[in-house]
Amino acid sequence: MNTIWLKIAAAAVAIVIAIIVVGRFRSDKPAPSEPEKPKTFYDMADRDKQFNEPPKPVEEPPAQPVQEPAPQPAPQPEPQPAQQPPAPQTTPQPTMARPAGVVFPSDLTGPTTLHFMPMSEEDDIAAQQILPYATAGRSIGRLPIMQYGLMMKACQQIEERWPDSWYAFRAKQMMEEITQYQDRYATMYKITPQRLDISRFMKPRRGTEPRTVEPIRR
After folding, report:
1. Residue 174: helix, strand or coil by DSSP?
2. Greater confidence, 196 or 53?
3. Scanning 37, 88, 152, 206, which has its CA 20 to 30 A from the CA of 80?
4. Is residue 34 in some structural domain?
């Protein structure tokens, strides 16, 4: 009789040990990683807020005290180097067809100083009210079966009213980007290379102020 109970107790102990071992084995396994969730309309709209951000004004460095140059020693004649054969000329690689002198917003690969005309308080308030329609229309246009009509209408108003402002530069950024999604958008919305040209902002002009712009954050 005692032998039967001993066997039952031993079996129970073995079951408990097996449960503990299995539990530890499962806890050692790494938790499965969750698949990346697809971006929603709200994610895209949040990213598009970058177009509403004004470029930062360029801070001029503080003036340095003028120091008198130290006397320079008399130059010594340098030995003439041996003549080297001319380096072979390489054939330039073909680039995207565009009129000469045209610069696209995508040509900016890092922080760049551009020059924009300052705006009156009244015009600035009006532009601030129109620009969000362009950024919202850009987000809506990327949804299935939607178009960029709202964005283009707002961009056209900015182009016509404030062509030398940083708002016009943002409009050109948005227009160029949708042509990179689909070639047909350039024809549909009459987006020409001249319309995307930002070369007018590259050099200072009378009355302009320098601001630092950056490429689009994808």
Report:
1. helix
2. 196
3. 88
4. no
d(CA 218, CA 215): 9
Place of tokens 């809506």: 140
Residue at 9 is within a domain: no
| Maximum Cα interatomic distance, the chain, rounded to a whole number of Å | 117
* Element containing residue 151 per DSSP (H, E): helix 149-161
Whether 183 is covered by a domain: the verdict is yes
Q: Give the tokens for residue 26.
A: 């499962």
Range of the domain at 211: 39-52+102-218
- From CA 84, how far away is CA 91, in angstroms rounded? 21
Is-contact 55 213, C-beta < 8 A? yes
The C-alpha atoms of residue 115 and residue 208 are separated, in whole angstroms, by 6
Tell the residue number behind the tokens 């320098």, with chain if given: 210
Q: Which amino acid makes up residue 133?
A: Y
Average pLDDT over residues 117-123: 96
Overall number of domains in the chain: 1
* Distance (Å, whole) CA 155 – CA 152: 5
Q: Flag whether 19 is in a domain.
A: no
The tokens for 62 are 């503080």
Scanning the structure block, which residue is given the tokens 């409009």?
171
- 3-state SS track over 44-106: HHHHHHHHHCCCEECCCCCCCCCCCCCCCCCCCCCCCCCCCCCCCCCCCCCCCCCCCCCCCHH
Contact indicator for 177, 207 with CB cutoff of 8 Å: no
Provide the token pair at 198: 């930002």
